[in-house]
Amino acid sequence: MTSKQQSVLEKATAHFRGKLTGDMRKVTVPEWECDIYVRQSSTLREESKILELSQQGKSVEALVESIIVKARHADGSKMFTSAEKAIFMNEVDPNVIIRIAAEMNNVPLDGLDEVEKN
Known about the structure:
Blueprint: H1 3-21, E1 25-29, E2 34-38, H2 44-55, H3 59-70, H4 85-91, H5 94-104, H6 113-117
Antiparallel strand pairs: 1-2
Helix pairs in contact: 2-3, 3-5
């Protein structure tokens, strides 16, 4: 790799590190009496499972996975684990999950109408 290419790659990784360590957005969830924090970006590794589920037509699972992967406490630590996925899928209000996932991913709620119908 030439020094010019390396310089661009270094800039790209520095830019992404800034997004991962920068300010987080807050999503207030009154039903759960908590705030969920979301980083400006997530890694491709984190996004890959969400994309895979979406491509398989598993939209609801993709929303749950999105919350599990992206939800943070104020200190930046993960709020949920993969082991809690079954609880989300079976014991948590779907309307709240849909709203939280929409807010976390900056998706208008009307874009999730089809998910709500399923």
